[in-house]
Amino acid sequence: MRSRAAINPKFGIVLKVMIHFVLLISRQGKVRLTKWYSPYSQKERTKVIRELSGVILTRGPKLCNFVEWRGYKVVYKRYASLYFCMCIDQDDNELEVLEIIHHFVEILDRYFGSVCELDLIFNFHKAYYVLDELLIAGELQESSKKTVARLIAAQDSLVETAKEEASSISNIIAQATK
After folding, report:
1. What is the pLDDT of residues 16-63, one digit of tens each?
2. Where are the domains positioned within the chain?
3. Cα(99)–Cα(105) distance, rounded to whole angstroms?
């Protein structure tokens, strides 16, 4: 069905994993981050979030981290006050997706220095940068934490340069209009 594959350098095997969407949900049911790799209308997205929040938040902590849902599997893992959820096809490897979730959390943790929910609320754009470097079109793109960290640092540098240039242009305009 799919010809795309991700190579896990840790184990040296080829794995096919297609992630349909990523959700980060707080224990109170607030959505902190969403990324959709399959087409869903806004109405469908709202319904998906409501359904999965209800299912995942009510599950006991001793139950497994996989839920069968609408012909898919939803793999989730709770870290502190956030649930990291990814929806995959029925035949995809759940353990590989748990590794991807953990990899994402480790990169966020390294970037923010012990990431917490507030980091994602106030710096959501940076969390999206990390996710976009990690996953492309719902598939694992970069497995190296160092490479992702380097790319995010370069992005931060570009943003700072742009802010400095905008500030200097604003100062020039302000002085010229005096």
Report:
1. 689 999 999 999 999 999 999 999 999 999 999 999 999 999 999 899
2. 6-176
3. 10
Query: What confidence tens digit (pLDDT) does each residue in 112-140 have?
Result: 988 989 999 999 999 999 999 999 999 99
CATH of domain 6-176: 3.30.450.60
Q: Are 9 and 143 in contact (CB under 8 A)?
A: yes
Contact between 120 and 127 under an 8 Å Cβ cutoff? The reply is yes
Q: What angle do CA 22, 158, 144 make, to 5 degrees?
A: 45
For the stretch 76-108, pLDDT in tens is 999 989 999 999 999 999 999 999 999 999 999
Q: Region of 44 please: left (phi>0), alpha (psi -120 to 50) or beta.
A: alpha
Burial class, 15, CB count within 10 angstroms (exposed 0-12 / middle 13-18 / buried 19+): middle
- Given a contact cutoff of 8 angstroms between Cβ atoms, the answer to whether 62 and 73 are in contact is no
8 Å CB contact between 15 and 6:
yes
Does the predicted model carry a pTM greater than 0.85? no
Look at residues 101, 113, 122 and name the one whose alpha carbon lies nearest to residue 56. 101
